[in-house]
Amino acid sequence: METVLRIAVQSKGRLSEKTQDLLKQCGLDLNSGGAQLMIKASNFPLEVLFLRDDDIPGYVSSGVADIGVVGENVADEKGYKVETVHRLGFAKCRLSIAIPRRFEYTGTEYLEGKRIATSYPRILGNYLKEKGVNAAVSEISGSVEIAPAIELADAVCDIVSTGSTLIANGLKEVEAFYKSEAILIATPGLNGGKKEILEKLLFRIKACQKAKKAKYIVLNAPNNKIDEISSMLPGMKSPTVTPLAIEGWSSMSSVINEDEFWDICEKLHDAGAEGVLVMPIEKMIY
Ligand code: ATP
Ligand code: MG
C-alpha cells in the first residue's frame, strides 16, 4: 500500500486560506469538492483533513494526523506532545492582557487578586506564575472582550493583531506577552516513509517561502558602471551580465530581497542604472 502523509488543516477561519494557498504553491493538486472533510492530492502522497483548529494538536499528537498547521498559541494552549517542524510566517498575532481604559495600569502587580477572562488559561497561567502574580483566571471560549463590561472580569487576555477590537470594547492593551504565528507540527517520531514525504513537502515549503521575499531584478547599465552596480546586487552567486545591442551598455539581472529593494533602487539610480524592472519569483531553490 502506498504510504500517504495526512495533514490536518483548519477548515474555516484565519488559517485556512493561507494554508491552502501554501499547499497549492507547493504544487499539490487538491480538488476539493467544497464540503469534503478529507481530500487526497492527485499528484503527491498527501491527504488533507479539514478540522477546527482546536482539534488539530490532539489529532497530530495521537497520530490520527501525521502533521498539521495550527497557530502556535493553540498548540501551546492545548499542551499536547507534538513536534514543531517549521514556522510558517503567517497568521501573526500576539496574546495580550487588556484592562478597561479608565483604569491606570501600574505593572503586573496591578493584576494581583484580579479576575482575568481568557480562552488561553494555560498560557496565561504560565505567564502569571512567571511574574509571581496571583489572579483568578476564568476560561471563556469566545467574545472575551466584553467580560469587563458585563462585570464578569476585571481584565482580559486575548489574541490581538491590530488592537481595534480592544478599543471598540473600551479596553487598552497593557501587556503583550506572547507572540504567535502559524506553525507546522508533527506527531513525535514520525516513521521512515512518512518522514520522507514530510521532508519533500518541507523542501517545497521552504522554496516557496524564500521566493516570497525575493525579487528578480533586471536593469540596463553603462559598461563602465558594471562593477559598481554588481557590488550593490548580491544575487544568488553574482549578477548575470549580457551585452545590449547598443554599444557600451549591458543588461544586468540578479535576485534581491524585497526588504532591501527601495534602498538598493536609489543607489542603482545614482550609479547610472536605467530601465530597472523588478519581478516576482515563484519558486527559489538553492
Ligand atoms: P475554529 O473555528 O477553527 O476553532 P477559531 O475561531 O478558533 O477557528 P480563528 O479566529 O480562525 O480561530 O484563528 C485561528 C488562528 O489564527 C488563531 O489561533 C491565531 O493563531 C491566528 N489569529 C487569530 N486572530 C488573528 C488575527 N487577528 N490576525 C492574525 N492571526 C490571527
Ligand atoms: Mg478554534
Q: Summarize this, please?
A:
With 286 residues, the chain is α/β, with parallel strands linked by helices. The protein has helices at residues 16-25, 56-62, 72-78, 121-131, 164-168, 192-213, 226-232, 261-270, and strands spanning 5-10, 38-40, 46-51, 67-71, 83-87, 93-100, 115-118, 136-139, 155-160, 171-180, 182-186, 214-222, 240-243, 249-257, 274-280.
Major sheet: order of its strands? 2-3-1-4-11-5
Low-confidence stretches: none
Question: Quick one: overall form?
Answer: flat
Largest sheet: 6 strands, mixed
The H-level CATH homologous superfamily of the largest domain, spelled out, is: Periplasmic binding protein-like II
Q: Let me know the number of strands.
A: 15
List the defining traits of the structure above.
286 residues; alpha/beta; D-Maltodextrin-Binding Protein, domain 2; Alpha-Beta Plaits; 6-stranded mixed β-sheet; 5-stranded mixed β-sheet; 8 helices; 15 strands; 28% helix; flat; binds adenosine-5'-triphosphate; binds magnesium ion
Description:
- The protein is built from eight helices and 15 strands.
- The chain has 286 residues and is α/β, with parallel strands linked by helices.
- It folds into three domains: 5-89 and 182-211, Periplasmic binding protein-like II (D-Maltodextrin-Binding Protein, domain 2, 3-Layer(aba) Sandwich), CATH 3.40.190; 93-180, Periplasmic binding protein-like II (D-Maltodextrin-Binding Protein, domain 2, 3-Layer(aba) Sandwich), CATH 3.40.190; 214-280, 2-Layer Sandwich (Alpha-Beta Plaits), CATH 3.30.70.
- The strands form three sheets. The protein has a six-stranded mixed β-sheet, with helices on both faces. Strands 8-7-9-6-10 form a five-stranded mixed β-sheet.
- The longest helix has 22 residues, at 192-213.
- 29% of the residues are buried.
- The mean pLDDT is 94.
- The chain binds adenosine-5'-triphosphate (ATP) and magnesium ion.
- The site of magnesium ion has 3 residues, from loops.
